[in-house]
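Action item from last week, closing it out:
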Amino acid sequence: MTGRSYAQTLRALKESYRRGHDGSTVDEMLARLGEGPALFTDAGATSTCEDSTCEEREGGLCWGYERDCTEDNRLFVPRCDGSPKPWAQTMEGKMELFWTQADFGYVKKVVDSLAILCSPKGKIAEGASQLICSAQLRYCRARNLYMDLRRYRQMTEKQGTYRSFLEDIFEEGEIGGNCELDINRLRDNARHKSPLQSWYAELGGYSSVDFKVKEGEQCDEIVTRPTVFIKLDAVVNMYHHFCDFFNIYASQHVNGSFSDDVQIVIWDTTLSKEFRDPFIETWRAFTRHPVMKLAQFQGKRVRISH
């Protein structure tokens, strides 16, 4: 299949999911304290068929990571054949392992581990910030994120122009927000620090700034469109690159939004501003806007609204 046909397939799947989605945000998920987002609007019984036998499911369908979602109402339930060994001792254990590692059970683990690392100093709309991350900073969501990239070229040239994942690039006060930082909780999530495993290398230096991160105050550029930062694997290899797209899709579930009116920014710490991708068409399944690179912000103090 070509990149275009993959993009068309992904868009079709996403459209079918979006129609039944309530648009819940991570903040709303945390506020519900376990109620879970209602991702399917059909609250009545749903007809399902397996092996030509139909049955009625009461309460509607759910993905499985919502806390009020029962196994009977999951949209997909793993079915395994063959011996459970060496993966597990029982067939039930094998199915549970698949569910938690390769299905929406993995999304559930991420959602359940979300924690507020930096609490707003006032109202978000007035320039206060917020940082929420999952365990070991494998996923993070920020509001009014402040980044000072005026040293970007200097930092890149010093550490190696062609390195895509430079670590610890921010000095104190160069990344953060107007919020109360739980520094101990942040440092407790440093064990997976690695380019493609977590965001700790980028957010480990997150600090609480004493100014409101809003237009006209300490910022050269304001990005108001919802922004997705992603670190890519090898784009020249279809297997590795499509792991990136699966990561974005899983993050959409954690976000509670499938909107394509988002700005995707490739976190690549080289000086190159040009984005090349043999599967460039596939990005259209996730955004209607051109994909950017981090270097396009070099020399600026930037506010990412959300």
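Closing note: The first strand starts at residue 46 and ends at 50.
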